[in-house]
Amino acid sequence: MHAPAIPAHLRLATAPRARPAAVVQGPHYRFTVLTSQLLRLEYSADGEFEDRATQVILHRDLPVPEFRVFDKPDVLEIITEHVHLVYDKREFTPHGLSVKVLGNVSNYHSVWHFGEAGEKNLGGTARTLDMVDGACELEPGLMSRYGFAVLDDSDTLVFDDDGWLDARRPGSGVDLYFFGYGRDYRACLRDFYRVSGPTPLVPRFTLGNWWSRYHRYTEHEYRGVIERFAAERIPLAVAVLDMDWHLTEIDPVHGSGWTGYTWNRDLFPDPEGFARWLHDRGLALTLNVHPADGIAAHEEVYERTALALGLDPEAGDAIAFDPTDPEFLRAYLEEVHHPLEEAGVDFWWLDWQSGPYSRIEGLDPLWVLNHIHFLDSARSGRLPLTFSRYAGPGSHRYPIGFSGDTIVTWESLALQPYFTATASNIGYGWWSHDIGGHMFGYKDDDLATRWVQLGVFSPVNRLHSSSLPFTGKEPWRFRAEAQTAMTEFLRLRHRLVPYLHTMNHRASAEGRPIVEPMYYEYPEADDAYEVPNQYLFGSELMVAPIVSPRTRALNRAAVEAWLPPGLWFDFFTGTRYQGGRRARLHRTLDAIPVLARAGAIIPLVHSDEVGNGVAAPERLELLVFGGASGEFTLIEDDGTAAAGEPEHQVRTRIEFDWGTGTLRVHPSEGAVDGVPRVRSWEVAFVGVADGAGNSPLRVRMDDVDASEGFSLTPSGGLALAPNPTVAAVERLLEDVHEKFTVKGEVFARVASGEPPAAVVAALAGMSLDPGLFGALVELILADAG
């Protein structure tokens, strides 16, 4: 399967040949010690081995770790600091090849035998959530509570010297990667990125709100929606046009109309003008494409594409979609997509293909499209980007993921926090879900609101729905309470962009996905594995989304959460929680449990600057959470394809010393276009009271030059403010449906000044509604040690 040379910008940089000192080889076997915890295991009947990069593994040229080899006539042993391999030098079998993870990860479960799938795997992700209504099966990930996982790379294609894909030799044998990381999940993921390539930076604009709907919009209608969002003071950053942007009602001789590249000028008479209009309002534009049917004769691009491929356009034969042919792919990009990009399309939404098959066995059309579109999108000096479904391990190199068409139900919502966090176990950190659900299901204001709240605390927040009547996710389609909550959260999403973009840099440079399961930080705590919908959101926040309806009488929904040891503050109210315990957290429709650790520092766009787009703001707000010292480095960049390099960045280190009460914003390092040199900063010390007893304590610093920074120490030092328990209980009792006499008795007990434990004990004897009792306990014991 040899192909013409591939353009340089469509070639991945690879270093696939391992260092000789890392290799232990015999007539039919080869073991490569990539790290002390990562082994490559190969068996080949003909004694030939593969040294080229594969679709999953690009880099094997790693520093050689220390290891010992014991080579006897009938047994080979390889021992590193972390793993012990034993092999009988025959064809791989369960009784002849094993690897033990050292370090007492488990009593006896941490030994892998060839062929075993591995128990207690923590899961990876799935290709799509199309039509999923609740739980779905996940592919395995790279982590297990028993300390090991195996990645089978035997059947992937390899890259040839021309930069294109080639089949492996027939009968090329077994090619496995053994990950023996115990419960050091972050180290496992970092080393996976070392061999498979890092997660790229995504453009800053992807972190704002996306508007999408499968709907036959006219240009006038779409402009009207964008203008209505602006009038409602709801910011947007990405405009999505589903498939009806192109001709869909075509002569059946040309196909179904799902594939298309010609603007429907009845709907969009001036596509270039429409794209300019969006750009002028701070929005990027993406178009949906279904490439599987090729390029038919009715397309505007047909003639030039046919000529570019040496075909006769007069024949009128459709140009078949062939992802195995580099010449087709070159014409597909240059003749079909590049002109549309030059006219204003910022990136492509690659929608569902006709299955995983192509003319070449093992070559998935979806994988090829993700690969070439992503690399091609960087040719103009911008950060590369594509938007498509997951196509197996290694897909993290081609963000962002489109998870597919879910059903509009509570069951679908309940899956997505777990699904998003667990995808990090295979390195896939940039899922974009149909926020609100795509189709079928039912109208439920609480469901829609909770989904938006999840979206705001997800990698990507893309509102979406089907073309069915009444399914749109515009907040003004919902009742006033839901509309208000959605609006505030969508505004919050844009305020969070400085924090999110810093985490974007962390994901790329440090191998830390923005969403991580709780067990990444607390691998030895059983509780961390028992809250699958709870996750870490960047370095400073922890989220426990609400995925169930409110109780009518209580007017609140609840979620079972685990509070790790330490102090935690509610992001919205500043309520302080003592950690090291399980808790049932209750929230009205305007909030979900988002908790910041003591000492957390979170940079936000000032609320007065929120609008379309995600430009670096001139006014920043810092939330600084009391109770511990902390530090945070704000990272901003120039948005070019080189934004991951220090010379294209501005870094502002922020330090908070709880002991002295001093906050220091250090002079910024670097200067790039688009990042203001002079800013105003408003600092809110959350959980800390000012002289009048008000919390948070706020300080404003105007006209701060980035080259100077500033330092502030509030007079009198800092001390934690007491939780306003009595006031919070009063608000709860005002809201709930309960007998007035019961409310009065409860409030009197809470306001009595008795110790929290005594108050709870007294309430326990009152035969209260269980929901009300639980909500009261949360507030009364929030900060109880």
Concise account of the structure shown:
With about 775 residues, the protein is of the alpha+beta class.
Mean pLDDT across all amino acids: 95
Strand content: 15-25%
Distance between the termini: 67 Å
In which range does the helix fraction lie?
A: 10-25%
What are the low-pLDDT stretches, counting only 5+ consecutive residues below 50? Answer: none
Give me the side-by-side strand order of the main sheet. Answer: 16-15-14-13-20-19
The whole-angstrom Rg is 28 Å
Number of strands: 36
Explain what the structure shows.
The chain is α+β, with helices and mostly antiparallel strands and 785 residues long. Helix 4 (302-308) packs antiparallel against helix 5, helix 8 (445-456) packs parallel to helix 9 (480-495) and helix 14 runs antiparallel to helix 15. The longest helix has 17 residues, at 326-342.
Summarize the topology.
Blueprint: E1 23-25, E2 29-33, E3 38-43, E4 68-72, E5 75-79, E6 83-87, E7 97-101, E8 111-113, E9 149-152, E10 158-159, E11 165-166, E12 174-179, H1 185-196, E13 209-211, H2 219-231, E14 238-241, H3 271-280, E15 284-289, H4 302-308, H5 326-342, E16 347-350, H6 365-376, E17 401-402, H7 410-422, E18 431-432, E19 434-435, H8 445-456, E20 461-463, H9 480-495, H10 497-510, E21 515-517, H11 526-529, E22 535-537, E23 541-543, E24 557-563, E25 567-570, E26 576-578, E27 581-587, E28 594-597, E29 601-605, E30 619-625, E31 630-637, E32 649-657, E33 662-665, E34 678-686, E35 697-705, E36 710-712, H12 725-735, H13 740-750, H14 756-764, H15 770-780
Parallel strand pairs: 13-14, 13-20, 14-15, 15-16, 17-18, 19-20, 30-34
Antiparallel strand pairs: 1-2, 2-3, 3-12, 4-5, 5-6, 6-7, 7-8, 9-12, 10-11, 21-22, 22-23, 23-28, 24-27, 25-26, 25-28, 29-30, 31-32, 32-33, 33-36, 34-35
